[in-house]
Amino acid sequence: MEWILLVLAAAVLVFGIGVVLWNRRRSAGQVGAPAATPLPARPAPAVRPAPDVEAEPEPAAEAPDLEAEPEPAAPAAPAAERPTFRSRMSKARSALAGAFLGIRGRRGITDETWDDLEEALLRADVGVRVTDELLGGLKARVKAKEITEPDALLDALQAEMTSRLAGADRTLHFQPGEPDSPNVWLFVGVNGVGKTTTIGKVAHRQRGEGRSVLLAAGDTFRAAAAEQLTTWAERSGAELVRGSEGGDPSAVIFDGIERASARGIDLVLGDTAGRLHTKTNLMDELRKVRRVAAKGKGRVTEVLLVIDATTGQNGLTQAREFGAATTVDGEGGVTGVVLTKLDGSAKGGIVFAIETELGLPVKLVGLGETIEDLVVFDPADFVDALFATD
User: Fold this and answer.
1) What is the DSSP string of 253-292?
2) What's the total number of domains in the chain?
3) Is 320 among the domain residues?
4) Residue 328 CA to chain centroid, in angstroms?
5) What letters, b where the CB count within 10 A reaches 16 and e where it falls short, cover 286-322?
6) What local confidence, expressed as pLDDT, does residue 223 receive?
7) Residue 41 has pLDDT above 60, yes or no
8) 99-115: per-residue pLDDT in tens?
9) Does the residue 263 lie in any domain?
10) How much is the pTM?
11) Is there a contact between 268 and 184 (Cβ–Cβ < 8 Å)?
12) Antiparallel, parallel or unpaired: β 327-328 and 331-332
């Protein structure tokens, strides 16, 4: 009997130990039971976090912050550099720079100094007459010991050149009058000097001064002239009168003046066909344009000769011929010169020949191709640009 009890006690003990070990293995994940098939993951529900009382609440993305400062506007693009004689006349300056540098490098004023100055002025197209007059006066001052140093000589030359251009009337004449009597400015010159472009730029300037402007497309021979002037009229806000291709230029100018008179427009800018000054029949036609312009209700207050600065002394001949063709009954003629392409010319000295030999003031000069590059001629700035060393 005792034997049976011992056996049962041993069995109970073994079973208890087994149960304890099995529980430990189960809790440690070591039971070899098959793993359960995982269920598909579900998105976690959005949980609004508890507000952090110490942090600033962020506004909703779609809700504008009405109290916030508006975003500053992007800075405007810098204005285009306005043209200056110094910045645009490097070619004309180069015609003189070498000679001036050599003169400054010498200890005194010698015969070689005068030779260098003469060559430089002629190369810049100042002209023989003006060059002789400039150097003649300086030689007298050197002889009188008034000027003894090369630097003083060049300073005196600069002052003399500026003085020769001073005092001219460079005003674009506009005479206020009755509303039905517009001012008329005619533009004349040979082929390819830039008359039509010049008219467009002048229209832009005059519109900027508050005047109403009408463009009369009197160049009826060049196929693209009227289209080009139409573009300039749109840019400047001016009105336009044009005729048929190959039509009578005088009729177009007359119609332009009549329309300006009827509408109370202040200023008519009349384009004319480019023509060689040696062509007698074309110059006769220009005389007709000038006579017709004077007969209408308008008043011709400017006849501007447009000259390409790169043509040099040939511009003098043009000025004489066009002056004669635009003179009516001994009156009128060319009243001023517009010198184009001065920025691309080494012959800027033509200004002195035009003003000294012909007595015509240079009123406007072209220093580039943009609409702002037609500027009023300033003698002091012009001569300063020729002598500048920077």
Assistant:
1) HHHHHHHHHHHT-SEEEEEE----TT-HHHHHHHHHHHHH
2) 1
3) yes
4) 37
5) beebbebbbebebbbbbbbbbbbbbbbbbbbebbebb
6) 73
7) no
8) 888 898 888 999 999 99
9) yes
10) 0.76
11) yes
12) antiparallel
| pLDDT value of position 80 | 53
Helical H segments across the chain, by residue range: 2-27, 85-88, 90-104, 111-123, 128-143, 150-165, 195-208, 225-236, 249-263, 280-295, 314-325, 350-358, 379-387
φ and ψ at 187, to 5 degrees?
Answer: -115, 125
List phi, psi (to 5°) of 262: -65, -30
Percent of the chain with pLDDT over 90: 42
Can you give the residue range of the structural domain that contains 225?
Answer: 183-334
* SS3 call for 149: coil
pLDDT tens-digit series, residues 165-176: 998 999 999 998
CATH of the domain at 267: 3.40.50.300
Bridge partners of 308?
Answer: 340
pLDDT value, residue 153: 95
Which region among 74-88, 224-238, 243-257 has the lowest average model confidence (pLDDT)?
A: 74-88
Q: How many CB atoms lie within 10 A of CB 62?
A: 5
Q: Report which of 307, 318, 36 is spatially closest to residue 195, judged by C-alpha positions.
A: 307
Six-digit token string for 251: 């009729």
